[in-house]
Amino acid sequence: MSQNNISTPVPAYTIAILGTKSPHTLTIPGRLPGLNEYTEACRTNAHKGNKMKREAQEAVMWQIMAQMRRVRFASCYLFGRT
């Protein structure tokens, strides 16, 4: 019997950089936890919610550093600051 190697696609998030006309995009492979999952973890145990958030932020941070290594922007806009 031959076994088919059917790979399931890994979910990924593709993010366009807001506020710019830049052609750069950031692709985050895998799945990030949603708000419902985060809320449930926080209600279970505050440390569990903290760990979930920290791991998600770290995964995104590493993807930014790996994919945007040579990208430079002329200015930076922080949302909510005036």
Secondary structure layout:
Layout: E1 12-16, E2 25-29, H1 35-44, H2 46-67
Helix pairs in contact: 1-2
Task: Give a structural overview.
The chain is α+β, with helices and mostly antiparallel strands and 82 residues long. It has a domain at 29-69. The protein has helices spanning 35-44, 46-67; strands at residues 12-16, 25-29. It has a two-stranded antiparallel ribbon. Strand 1 (12-16) and strand 2 form a beta hairpin. The longest helix is centred in the C-terminal third of the chain and has 22 residues, at 46-67. The N and C termini lie far apart (66 Å).
Q: Counting H and I runs of at least 4 residues, what is the number of helices?
A: 2
Major sheet size, sense and barrel closure: 2 strands, antiparallel
Strand content: 5-15%
Compressed to H and E, one letter per element, the order equals: EEHH
Q: What is the global morphology?
A: elongated
| End-to-end distance | 66 Å
Q: Compute the gyration radius: what is it?
A: 18 Å
Structural class: alpha+beta
